[in-house]
C-alpha cells in the first residue's frame, strides 16, 4: 500500500525506519549501509523529508542524525500508515485480540528497529494461552500480512526487553 502511494523505495524505507518507533534515529552513511542503497539516493530522500518537516535533524559531533518530527501535524497519521503497511494493525487484530488473555504485546528485533526484514518477532505477556490456537492465529496472520511471524509467550515480562509495545492493557 505505502509502496504504491510512494514510488521511491528509499523513501518508503526511511518512513518505515523512523515511524515504527519514535526513538529510531539514523545518519546518512549508516542508513545507506542498512538499506543497501547509495548515499546519494538516501541523501536526496532525507533532504526531501526534512524540507517537508517530516524528519528533523541534529548534529552529533561530526555527523548529522535524523529522526521523525514528533511535532509534525501528520506524525500520528504517518505512524498509523506505516503500521498498516507493515501489517502490525492486522497482527494485533488477528492474533492478540482473539487470544483474550494477553496483557501486553511487544514487537522486538528488526521491526522494532524500523527494518522491514519480512519476519516480525513478538513477545506476548499472557497466561493460559492455548498454543495450538495461537499457532493457528499466527498462520492466519502471516497469510493476511504476507510476513513471517515469530511469537514467544511469557507469563511475566522478561527483564531488559526493548521493543515497540503494540498492545497493553
Helix and strand run: HHEHHEEHHEEHEE
Low-confidence stretches: none
Briefly note the CATH topology name of the largest domain.
Beta Polymerase, domain 2
User: What is the molecular shape?
Assistant: elongated
Largest sheet: 4 strands, mixed
Give the integer mean of the pLDDT values.
86
Percentage of residues in DSSP E strands = 15-25%
Can you tell me the CATH architecture of the largest domain?
2-Layer Sandwich
Q: Describe the strand arrangement of the main beta sheet, using strand numbers.
A: 6-5-4-7
Describe what is shown at a glance.
The longest helix is centred in the last third of the chain and has 15 residues. With 169 residues, the protein is α+β, with helices and mostly antiparallel strands.
